[in-house]
Design brief:
Layout: H1 8-20, E1 41-42, H2 43-53, E2 55-67, E3 70-82, E4 86-90, E5 93-108, E6 111-123, E7 129-134, E8 137-145, E9 150-151, E10 156-165, E11 173-185, E12 191-202, E13 207-218, E14 223-234, E15 237-243
Antiparallel strand pairs: 1-9, 2-3, 2-15, 3-5, 4-5, 5-6, 6-7, 7-8, 8-10, 10-11, 11-12, 12-13, 13-14, 14-15
Length: 244
């Protein structure tokens, strides 16, 4: 259930900044001290547990939108939901489909705009990621993605690489996506922060958006979504959002 978020959830924010103009601001951040953790944590077990049971978390949003010399703060809240798997067919093979949604709203220049995004992750019967779909995208893994069986603080690695197309015909390529992970000690004892980072590249190979989900996993392998980050640009406006 370590599933990428779609930057589409934040695109509508750009139109607000473009329409409303100025406003200065800065989105500061602090890093909480970390606590001692176990030597390793059961990552694959946490993934499968979350896929089987679903997950929902409401988080507070802070961030900023920038256009030229104008930077405007953003506040709000979002609810991130991961549904339970449903049997389907993907790229000609049996698969499990897990739907993720982002709902909520953000405020910029005193105006509220909704966040509303839906995407699907496609998994093999053994819960390896084989692709993803969203509005105008059909992404296929070059090989099934795999999470590490266990992980400890300070590790990084690759999960999956995908080629993306406009639709299931795969006749028109629109770019690629890569998914990696990084770990650090959680803020509570015997927890691990497992961050899944998605980078999206257009057909020319230019990075267009980055999203990251952080799950805090305890020693029993139970995950809790603790942070969502979105970075990218739309309509000439750069957007940087953090929800936690």
């Amino acid at each position: 259930m370590f599933i990428k978020t779609k930057f589409a959830a934040a695109v509508s924010v750009a139109s607000l900044l473009a329409a409303c103009g100025g406003g200065g601001g800065d989105a500061g951040s602090t890093t909480a001290p970390t606590a001692p953790v176990n030597a390793s944590f059961p990552i694959q077990g946490a993934v499968i547990s979350a896929y089987l049971h679903g997950l929902q978390q409401t988080l507070n949003v802070t961030g900023f939108a920038s256009s030229g010399a104008i930077t405007t703060p953003i506040t709000g809240a979002l609810t991130f939901t991961i549904g339970q798997p449903l049997s389907t067919t993907f790229n000609g093979a049996a698969a499990l489909q897990v739907t993720q949604t982002i709902t909520g709203s953000v405020v910029i220049n005193g105006q509220s705009t909704p966040l509303n995004s839906t995407g699907n992750n496609l998994l093999s019967p053994s819960y390896a990621e084989v692709g993803s779909t969203g509005s105008g995208s059909y992404c296929v893994a070059s090989t099934p993605g795999a999470f590490p069986a266990t992980a400890s603080a300070g590790q990084t690695g690759s999960i999956v690489a995908k080629a993306c197309y406009a639709d299931s015909s795969k006749s028109f390529g629109i770019g690629t996506e890569t998914q990696t992970y990084a770990t650090k000690a959680g803020s509570a004892a015997n927890t691990l922060d497992f961050q899944i980072i998605d980078n999206v590249y257009n057909a020319g190979g230019t990075l267009t958006e980055t999203s990251a989900l952080t799950y805090t996993i305890n020693s029993a392998g139970v995950p809790t979504l603790t942070q969502v980050q979105l970075q990218g640009s739309a309509s000439g406006v750069s957007i940087n959002l953090t929800a936690k």
